[in-house]
Specification:
The chain is mostly beta strands. The chain contains two helices and nine strands. Strand 7 and strand 8 form a beta hairpin. The structure holds zinc ion.
């Protein structure tokens, strides 16, 4: 049964309110995560609590338990001169900027004469997330996985 300290392997499909698939696990590459370590959005983690191998379910996750609400203060005006001269600026363009030493993703949402409006919200902020999930495997996490707060696969890492 899924509880804190378990490594859970699952397949999922994530749809938005229009029913479009936004993300999904590949058939040969299910998602593994450490339960109880905030590796996945809170609403999905809560819905998985107590489930067993073979369980299939759907859950609608509200923004508050997903990627949060859209924050108007995350809309920032940036002068065109901040971009390279050959950069083709258009609505929908995603770009990365460094803020306080951390790379942050933003999306251009409006083009003005001498500047652009960039949205630093998570792309799924404000969206209700519709997950369809099937639980494939559950195992106990190792001590080092619990210490690190994440799953160790066969192909990663390490520090
Ligand atoms: Zn680690």
């Amino acid at each position: 049964m899924i509880a804190s300290g378990k490594v859970v392997t699952l397949h999922y499909i994530l749809r938005n309110g229009e029913g479009d698939i936004i993300d999904q696990s590949q058939s040969d590459d299910p998602l593994s995560y450490l339960h109880g370590a905030s590796n996945i959005v809170p609403g999905l983690e809560i819905a998985l609590e107590g489930r067993g191998v073979g369980d299939e379910f759907s859950v609608a996750v509200e923004p508050a338990d997903g990627y949060g609400d859209k924050d108007q203060e995350m809309l920032v005006e940036i002068p065109r001169s901040e971009f390279g001269p050959e950069e083709e600026l258009e609505v929908g363009l995603e770009f990365e900027v460094e803020i306080d030493g951390h790379p942050e993703m933003a999306t251009i949402v409006e083009i003005l004469d001498d500047s652009v409006i960039a949205d630093f919200n998570h792309p799924l902020a404000g969206e209700i997330l519709y997950f369809s999930v099937s639980v494939v495997d559950i195992r106990d996490a190792t001590d080092s996985e619990i210490e690190h707060g994440h799953v160790h696969g066969d192909h990663d890492h390490h520090h």
